Amino acid sequence: MAAELTYQERLNRFEIAQETIGFMMAMHTRSIDQEQKKAAPDTAVIDSLRAEFKKLADELYYLRLKDDATIQRVLDEYCPIVKAAYEQERAAS
Fold first, then answer.
1. Which listed residue, of 30, 32, 42, 55, carries a Cα 20 to 30 Å from 7's Cα?
2. Mean pLDDT throughout 47-71?
């Protein structure tokens, strides 16, 4: 049986999940901007990115401190993506 999280541990995980979703939203905003700047922007790509952005915004809005399962899913799903993007950007500079 897993140990119960302390309030501080739960709060830390919640804040990390919030920030991670925020980073994902920023990545989508950047991708939308890059696509729009192309000579022939792909509207399907832009629409898809906007839909994903809205999904992320909804996730952020509905994220709750006591929802351990959703927080864990966010951390498992999005942290590797954010980390990979950060490492790719760092390597490029």
1. 55
2. 97
